[in-house]
Specification:
- This protein is of the alpha+beta class.
- Among the domains are: about 35 residues, no CATH class; about 35 residues.
- It contains 5 helices and 10 strands.
- The longest helix is centred in the first third of the chain and has 12 residues.
- The C terminus is likely disordered.
């Protein structure tokens, strides 16, 4: 349900060629910090010769965890594998709960909902919404821009993150 925007005081970004508007001053300040680097209090990585800088403490903590292994609270897979007589616990470890959920889905078939392709005649079934999206984009060219279609379906991956489409296979999924 969409709410009516009656009596809303909009706060507009004053940067050139930026049409962003926000309902609160705080949201505008966050936009200007993230998008235009205005009033940023930079956080520097304290690992020698790293040089990474972030706009928030949360970003620097995630960087330190993923790049340097600092502050990681490892999640251990507790799935029983093998036969009853010989089996044991999987024991695979992951840095985040999300990575562990992906491991359990791909390696043990636990969790997730089947993602069926809705294109007539296609019987593709994905394990994640991301895999279905990738399938639709690469096989059926659905969701691609006209420019991508002209290039024959090549998708440029510059700047994509692991939270969108998996651009690599983590070692525990290999």
């Amino acid at each position: 349900m969409q709410r009516h925007l009656i009596n809303v005081t909009w706060h507009y970004c004053d940067q050139v060629n930026c049409a962003f508007r926000a309902k609160t001053v705080d949201n505008l300040k966050n936009h200007q910090m993230y998008m235009h680097s205005i009033n940023v209090v930079w956080h520097d990585c304290d690992v020698v010769e790293c040089g990474f800088r972030a706009k928030t403490a949360n970003q620097i903590n995630r960087h330190r965890m993923f790049k340097h292994g600092i502050g990681v609270q490892w999640k251990k897979c507790d799935v029983h594998v093998g036969g009853d007589a010989v089996g044991g616990i999987c024991g695979t470890v992951a840095k985040t709960l999300g990575e562990m959920k992906l491991h359990k889905l791909h390696k043990h078939g636990i969790g997730g909902v089947e993602q069926l392709c809705d294109v007539d005649g296609c019987d593709y079934v994905g394990k994640t919404a991301s895999s279905l999206s990738t399938h639709r984009r690469t096989v059926h060219l659905i969701g691609k821009s006209d420019e991508e279609r002209k290039r024959g379906g090549c998708v440029e991956t510059r700047g994509q993150s692991v939270w969108g489409v998996l651009l690599f296979t983590p070692t525990y999924l290999a």
